[in-house]
Each structure stands twice: as C-alpha cells, then as structure tokens.
Amino acid sequence: MPNSPKQALLFTLLMCPIMVAGMSLYNMIAIHGFTWEALRMAIYGFPLALLVAFALDFFVVAQPAKALAAKIIRPSWPNWAKIVTVSTTMIVFMVVLMSGFGAVMAVGYTREVWAQWAANIPFNFIAALPLQLIIAGPIVRFVFGRVLTWRRTRVVHLNQ
C-alpha cells in the first residue's frame, strides 16, 4: 500500500486503467451484449472515463475513503482485513461517483439521469467489488511492490 504522495500517485496510475477497463467492458456488455460493438464502445469511452476516474480517485475520493476506513480498522486486524476495508470504502465512493458519470454519459443531463444513476449504483457495485478484491487489487499490489523493490534496489546500486 502507498506510504507517500508519490506512491499514492503511482498506485492510482496503476489501479485506474484496470478498473476503468473492467467496468467499461462490463457496462458495455450489459448494454450491447457480448459483441464486438460492446468492445468498441468500451474502448471508445475509455479515455474520458479514465480521466474522470483518476481525477475523482486521486483528488476527491482517496482522503475521505481512507479516513472512513481508518475509523473502521482495528490495530489488531491482519493486513488482508485492512486491505479489504480500504478497498471496499474506495469502491463504495467510486461506484457512487462513477455511476453518476455513467448515467450522464448514457442519458445526458435529462430528467432520467437521477433514476439511471440510482439504478447504476447497485449494478456497478456487484461487479466493481469483486473486480477490485479478486483481480485488480492483487495485480496492482504485486506490480506496485515490484516497482518499489526495483526502485530501492536500483537506488542502492547507484549509490555504491
């Protein structure tokens, strides 16, 4: 897990593309079925969704989600429980906000946007939580750990 602002930035840069790709594909398959059109639409919407997700994650969600998780976590908990708690609070905040983004993208700024947003939240939560806990989280933590180990090793070798 990140211990500094630079590490938090790196972690977010690794996590966002995986989550946005997975959730974009999930939503497009739900709309278009398991077709090439779903893949095309997911790819087409990816850059804007990634930009919005990164901005929300890094500048809006991270601090309050981690603060809430800190109130829930007990010092005696094992690391995996702390990771699950932080990940879950992040997912709750991000699902609410990104579901709003998806609603606006789907129906625009119309009367239907609120109903669409409300419908999107549980629909997206049931995919985002396992995607984060089972796929994206472990992959990103593995890569993140390797990058930090590589940087430390490289710095040690350069200083010798």
TrEMBL record:
Protein name listed in UniProt: Uncharacterized protein
Domain of life per record: Bacteria
Source organism of the structure: Corynebacterium pelargi
